[in-house]
Design a protein that fits this description.
Elements (H helix, E strand, L loop, with lengths): L5 E5 L8 H17 L2 E4 L5 H12 L4 E6 H5 L9 E5 L2 H11 L2 E4 L4 H15 L7 E4 L6 H12 L12 E3 L5 H6 L7 H4 L3
Parallel strand pairs: 1-2, 1-5, 2-3, 3-4, 5-6, 6-7
Length: 194
Amino acid sequence: MTKLSTLCVFCGSRDGEDPAYAVQSEKLGQMLGEHGVTLVYGGGGIGLMASVANAAIQAGGDVIGIIPQFLRVLEVGGVDGAKEIVVDGMHERKAKMFELSDAFVVMPGGIGTLDESIEIITWKQLQQHNKPIVFVNINGYWDPFLALIAQVIKTGFGHDKIQGLYQVVDSVDQVFDAIHNAPDVDAVVLHSHL
C-alpha cells in the first residue's frame, strides 16, 4: 500500500482486564495523530474506543466516530474533538467505516469487535476489497481466534491462504509496517472450492 490516510480501528467498548490493552490503544492513537493518519472508529466514548480516540486527538490527529443513533441515545458515544457521524444502525455503521478507511486494525474487544473483524475479512475473501487488516495480538488475546481459523482450514472449510487475508502483530509498534507490507488478496481463497 502506498499511502495511508485513514485507519479504522475495531476495539472494545470496555477496557478489559489487562492494562496493556488500554496502554497499547493509547499508543496507537498517539501514533496516528503524530503521523497525520485520520482515525475512523465506532464513535464510543468508553473503553478502548475512548483510549484510542482521545490519544489521537491529544496528538493533534483527526478522528471520525461513526455511531448508530440508538447507541448515541444511550450516551455511550462521543469524545471531545472528534467528528461524529450518526447512522441508523449497525450495518450502516460498518459500511461507513469500510467506505472511509484505507486499512483496518483490530485491537482486543468483545463480540462487536469479532463481528466487525469477521465481516471485513469475509469481504476481503470475497474480493470486495484489498485493504490491509492487522490484528494486534496483545499478550495472546487473539490466540483463540487464530486457533479457530486454523481449525476452519484443518477441517476443510477454508483454503490455507485465508490466513493471508490479515496480518498478526504483537504490539502497535508493528502496525504501520504490517499495513505497508500486507500482501494482495490471493484469488485462490475464493476459487479453491470450484
